[in-house]
Amino acid sequence: MYQKNELLRAFIEKNCLLADVDISLSTGTQSSFYFDCKKATFDGEGLSLIVDGVLAIIDGLPEQPTAIGGLTMGADPIVAGVVARAYQLGRSPTHGSIVRKEPKKHGTKSKIENQLPSGTKIVVIDDVITSGGSIKTACKELIAEGYIVVGIIALVDRKAGGKESLEREFGPVHALFDKNDFPALRSLDEIETVAEAA
């Protein structure tokens, strides 16, 4: 069963969270905070803690996946970390698939790297949920190729409506953390609320 890990939360807050900024998100909206989770997923300590959390969430899923995957680039290091750790532990998921944003222009010209057989049960992963667009794209591509999505996991839910949108279409979505787990953002919310009221 998954329990929030304070070491990972503190790691993300210290290394990945940009607060009190003016930044453009992939959704095209502006935000006063940003999670650069690549600073955790491409770090040995950060990725190790993330993998522990992801495997704990997978343990609680009603259906167990044999694979994990997602849209490049947010999913890539997490997928690699999870399948390697799962293999070392003698458990699932030991297979990974990555959905490209565009099909390869050479070789197999595939849109899914390491395409697995139709009927493969997969959990879809991403680093951050805002609108849920990246995860939605990955789910649709995987389902179109015969995968069965049995769960969705993100490192951080920005609480911008994406989780709820994904749940309406694909079922339960799990996040290791959400925006409210970071005190710097709670104080930022208070400042913004006061500014809006003025």
From TrEMBL:
Where do the Phosphoribosyltransferase domain residues begin and end? 57-165
Q: Name one GO molecular function term.
A: magnesium ion binding
> Could you provide one GO biological process annotation from this protein's UniProt record?
pyrimidine nucleobase biosynthetic process
Recorded metabolic or biological pathway in which this protein acts? Pyrimidine metabolism; UMP biosynthesis via de novo pathway; UMP from orotate: step 1/2
Q: Where does 5-phospho-alpha-D-ribose 1-diphosphate bind?
A: R100, K101, K104, H106, D126, D127, V128, I129, T130, S131, G132, G133, S134
Alphabetical UniProt keywords: Glycosyltransferase, Magnesium, Pyrimidine biosynthesis, Transferase
- What is its cofactor? Mg(2+)
EC numbers for this chain: 2.4.2.10
Matches recorded under InterPro entries: OPRT, Or_phspho_trans_dom, PRTase-like, PRTase_dom
Catalysed reaction(s) here are: orotidine 5'-phosphate + diphosphate = orotate + 5-phospho-alpha-D-ribose 1-diphosphate
UniProt family annotation? Belongs to the purine/pyrimidine phosphoribosyltransferase family. PyrE subfamily.
Subunit notes for this chain?
Answer: Homodimer.
Q: What does this protein do?
A: Catalyzes the transfer of a ribosyl phosphate group from 5-phosphoribose 1-diphosphate to orotate, leading to the formation of orotidine monophosphate (OMP).
Please name the NCBIfam families in this protein's record. pyrE
What name does this protein carry? Orotate phosphoribosyltransferase
